[in-house]
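Posted in: Protein Modeling Q&A

I'm a second-year student putting together a small comparison for a lab meeting, and my supervisor asked me to include a predicted structure for PTS IIA-like nitrogen-regulatory protein PtsN. I've never done this before, so apologies if this is the wrong subforum. The sequence is pasted below exactly as I got it from our records. If anyone can share the structure token output, I'd also love a short note on what stands out.
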Amino acid sequence: MDLSNTLSPDCVRCAVEGTSKKKVLELIGQLAASRLAGAASFEVFESLLNRERLGSTGIGLGVAIPHGRLAGIHKPIAVLLTLSSPIDFDAIDNQPVDIVFALLVPEEQHEQHLQTLAAVAQRLNDKTMTRALRDAQSDQELYDLFVG
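Accepted answer (user: helix_wrangler)
Welcome! Here is the predicted structure, written out as tokens:
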């Protein structure tokens, strides 16, 4: 699956300071809102937070894939972050998280949501990929590694 249609370079940040899960979700909201006509960062944050309340999206091995649905958007939007220091994300393996890939999809696109999540999870379960992402030195390098 070509994720370059979902992830744009302006929604990628390398080695950001993330002091908590909430702060990281707020940053994702700010980055994603700049790409979404009509959606405020608070709406993005609330969508992600509501999903987290159902259970952590920390999939293990230092990776989290927060995701949510938004009314009024027409295509999926993604945000990719690496964190300068790992944070607690209530991951299934109880390990802190330092790679976060957030996905926001139109409210009605259930099947595409699942397919995109599966493609992202597969990519982030590759230890060679996660090692390279952690070693990235710039936003552009991080983007190129992920979509390449």
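A couple of things worth pointing out for your meeting: The chain has one domain: 3-147. Residues 66 and 102 are 5 Å apart (CA to CA).
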